[in-house]
Amino acid sequence: MSHDDFHDEAVAMARLGKDEKVIWQGAPDRAVLARRVFKTRLVAFYFGLIALSAVAFGNMGGAMFAVLAGMATLGLLHSMAWLAAKSSRYVLTDRRLILRIGMAIEKTINLPLGKIGAGKLADLGNGHGDIALDIVGPHSLGYALLWPHARPWKLSAPEPMLRALPDAAKVANILANAVAAIEPVNRHAVTSEAPAPAPTGLKEKLA
What we know:
Layout: H1 3-14, E1 22-26, H2 30-36, H3 40-56, H4 60-86, E2 89-93, E3 96-101, E4 107-112, E5 116-125, E6 128-135, H5 143-146, E7 161-165, H6 168-180, E8 191-192
Parallel strand pairs: 5-8
Antiparallel strand pairs: 1-2, 2-3, 3-4, 5-6, 6-7
Helix pairs in contact: 2-4, 3-4
């Protein structure tokens, strides 16, 4: 399936309503997802430290085993990141945000724009970022259902998250404008979790 075919299929699966328009669609970046969600850099550091310690104590066999184990683990994690990125699609319309996700079992989650109270942008560098969404009112979204498209450690009140997005600040502004076009529903201001200042558009109230 080509990249464009996947775009078209994601929209078709959303079953758009009458006069509903697609504003934006995108997917996680595989390399950033591997680093951010599957902690590949941390794992590489861990096995590297074990290998260096083995060398320091003259245990070359142990060092070789650590290197091989590290390569196998990293290969598995990168494969999972590739599968997660390949099976994920985010579609924003003028009425809702659609998350088509699921590495093993495909799921389609619809978030009406009127239910999105706030967005939190985390800057991951090089224009990439995560956008966590605060949902207004009760919902039945579980952490396991959303993972890895969920804000880490928010187990009791899961927050959907658009992960490892290229041009994340631009996407956040598009999302903010789409939500602002919906009838006001007592929203919060969009904030940033990143050390760097958030883009201007993200500091404005959604409605």
